[in-house]
Amino acid sequence: MDDKIVLTGIRPTGPLHIGHLCGALYNNVSIQNKQDYKHMYGMIADAQGLTDNFDDPDKVRNNVIEVALDMLAVGYDPEKTTVFIQSEIPELTELTFYYMNLVTLARLQRNPTVKNEIGQKEKFANGLPVGFLTYPISQAADITAFKATIVPGGEDQAPMIEQTNEIVHKFNSIYAPVLKPVKIIVPESNLAARLPGTDGNAKMGKSLNNCIYLKDSADTIAAQVKSMFTDPNHLRVEDPGNTKDNPVFIYLSVFAKPEHFAAFMPDYANYEELAAHYERGGLGDVKVKKFLNDVLQETLRPIREKRELLARDPASVMEILRVGTQKARAVATETLSEVKHAMKLDYFD
Question: Are residues 156 and 236 located together in one domain of the fold?
Answer without folding.
Answer: no
